[in-house]
Design a protein that fits this description.
Layout lengths: L2 H22 L4 H13 L6 E4 L4 E5 L2 E14 L2 E10 L5 E7 L1
Antiparallel strand pairs: 1-3, 2-3, 3-4, 4-5
């Protein structure tokens, strides 16, 4: 086997592993919704939820985040509360949370 074939094989292997890891590390919209629902369930049951399946980019704290917008509805003391959130698709962190009055 020639060294050029060996080096080419190694390079292709590293490139494939890099692309696989990059694709694997981003969340789907349903995974993002599951993370948000789990965070809200720590403080009580939720009544409903939604999430946009397309990503968007927001700027917070001087940084750009790509992720999903969604919402949660829950009952607290007989009153419905609605929240909208933005979750980063790379890390799964909730970047923005707003209570809707």
């Amino acid at each position: 086997m020639k060294y050029t074939q060996l080096i080419t094989g190694i390079a292709v292997g590293f490139a494939s592993a890099y692309l696989y890891q990059k694709k694997k590390s981003s969340l789907s919209s349903m995974e993002a919704l599951h993370i948000a629902k789990q965070a809200f369930k720590r403080n009580g049951p939720i009544n409903g939820s939604w999430i946009q399946t397309t990503t968007k980019v927001i700027n917070r704290y001087g940084l750009a985040f790509e992720g999903y917008s969604g919402g949660i509805t829950r009952s607290v003391d007989g009153n419905q509360e609605q929240y909208e959130f933005f979750i980063d698709k790379s890390s799964g962190n909730i970047i923005d949370l707003v209570k809707i009055d």
